Amino acid sequence: MKYILLIDEDPDILNIQQLVLTSFYGGEIIAVSNGSEALERLEAFGEPEVIISDQSILEEAGATFYSQLCEKDLLCPLVICSGDVVFEQHEKKYPNVSAFVRKPFSVESLTYLIKSITTEPTVKPDFLPVKLSILFNFIGRSFDLHLKLSDVNYVKLVKQGEGFSREDCEKLLNKGVTHLHISSKDSLEFLKAYEENLNFMLSARNGVTQEAIVDTIDNLVSIENVSKHLGWTPEVIESAKKSIDTAIRILSKDPSLANILKQKLANPTSGYARHLGLQAYLCCVLSADLAWGGESVQNKLALATLLHDLVVDEKYYDDIKSWNTKAANPKERSPEVIKYRLHPMEASKFIQKLENMPPDIDQILLQHHEKIDGSGFPRGLTTTRISQLATFFIIIEELIDFIGDGMSLESSFADFKTWGDATYSSGVFKKTYLFIRDKI
C-alpha cells in the first residue's frame, strides 16, 4: 500500500495537511499524534512514500523516536515541520532528514514539495471531504457544501453564503454524517481560506499578552453594568475575555502597535476606552452562538475592535456622533472631516504590514461605518455589498450609541429595539439584528 504518514500533536495541523494531500495525492493518508502511534503504523503498513513530522515529535523521550526511525533504515523521505527552523543546526542534529518546512503552512509549498518526492500518480477528486467541525471557521462561504450519498452521487446540502449552524451539525452527526464535501472547482479557494484561519490561530498561540491593555478593558465600569443587566454568567465573560486576550496577544507581536494601544487606553475613563471595551465584549459575547463561524469569529471581532479606530485621534471621541454625521455627508469637505471620513481606509492600510491577518478583518475595518441603505462612509455601500462580520460589527456599534444616549440601560436597549425594528427590515442586516435582539 502506498501512503503518506503524518505526525503532529496539533489536530488543526493534521487537518490541513490531510485536506491538502487529499486534494491531489492518489494513495492513502495516515495521520497520528505521537511517535508511538507512528511506529505502530509503520509496523502494520510498512514503509510509506513520505513521513511528515512535527519537530517536537522527533524529540519525544530524548529523541528516541528519531533514533528508532534511523534504526529502521527507511528509504522514504523524512520531512520535518517546525515553527522555529534554524536549518544549519537541524541538519547537524538530524542528518537523515530530507527537508525542513517552516510553520505556518503554505498550501502551495506543501503541495509542490509532496508532488516532487512521491511517485503515486496525482488525482483530481470531484469532491473534497471536510470535517463538520472545520466548517464553522468560514464566514460568508463562497462555495457550496455537498452531502455524499455514494461514490458517484453527491447532493447540494448548503448553498454558498448560507449559514451552517451547530444545530445543523448536530443533526448530521446524529445521522452518522461526519463530513460534507466541497467540489474540486472550489477546493483551492477553500484550502487557502483554511490556511489563513489556521495561521491566524497559530499566531495567536505564540504571542505575549500585554497586561496593561487587558486590565484597562476588563476594569471598565460600563462593561460591568452591561454584563449585570444582560445576566452574563462568569463562564460567558471568561470566554469573551479569552478572545480579547488572544487578539491583544496577536497585536502585541508588533511592539510599536502594542505601545499605541497602551497609550490610547491609558485613561480608562476616556470615550475611546469605553467604546472599545463595550465593542469588544458585546461582539465576543453576542457572537458566541452565531450560525456561521466558531471561536475564530470571536477572535476576529476582537481584533477588529482593537484596530478599527486605531488611527482616529481621541479628540474626535469628544463628539463622535457629530463626526460620523459629517463624514456621511458628501457635502462636508473640510480637511478634518475628510481625514475622519477616510479613517476606515487608513486602518485597512495599517494592518497590511501585520502577518497572518485574515481578510475578514480587513473587510470589517473598511466597512464598519457603512449603512444598510448606502448612506454610510467611506464608500456608501448597500447591504448586499457589506460582509456578514462587518454587518454584525456595525449593528453592535449602533447598540453602543444607544447605550451612551439612554437615561438607563433598560431604556437604552428598549430604544435600540424600537429603532432597529424599523431600520433593519431585510436581508443579512435583518437576520443579524434579530439574532442580536434576541440576546438583549
SSE inventory with pairings:
Blueprint (H helix, E strand, L loop, with lengths): L2 E5 L3 H12 L5 E5 L2 H11 L4 E5 H4 L1 H12 L6 E5 L4 H7 L5 E4 L4 H11 L9 E5 L13 E6 L2 E6 L7 H9 L4 E5 H22 L5 H8 L2 H10 L3 H18 L3 H10 L6 H16 L8 H14 L11 H9 L6 H7 L1 H8 L8 H9 L20 H18 L3 H15 L3 H13 L1
Parallel strand pairs: 1-2, 1-3, 3-4, 4-5
Antiparallel strand pairs: 6-9, 7-8
Helix pairs in contact: 1-8, 11-13, 11-14, 13-14, 13-19, 14-18, 15-16, 17-18, 18-19, 19-20, 19-21
Short description:
The protein is of the alpha/beta class. The protein has 21 helices and nine strands.
Strand order of the largest sheet: 2-1-3-4-5
Helical fraction equals 55-70%
Strand content: 5-15%
Average pLDDT for all residues: 84
Indicate how many domains the architecture comprises: 3
The coarse overall form would be elongated
Class derived from helix and strand content: alpha/beta
Number of strands: 9
Radius of gyration: 25 Å
Report the major sheet: 5 strands, parallel
| Main CATH class of the largest domain | Mainly Alpha
Order of helices and strands: EHEHEHHEHEHEEEHEHHHHHHHHHHHHHH
* Architecture per CATH nomenclature, i.e. the level-2 architecture of the largest domain: Orthogonal Bundle
What oligomeric state best describes the polypeptide chains here? Answer: single chain
Uncertain ranges? none
The span between the termini is 57 Å
The DSSP helix count reads 21
**CATH fold node name of the largest domain:** Hypothetical protein af1432
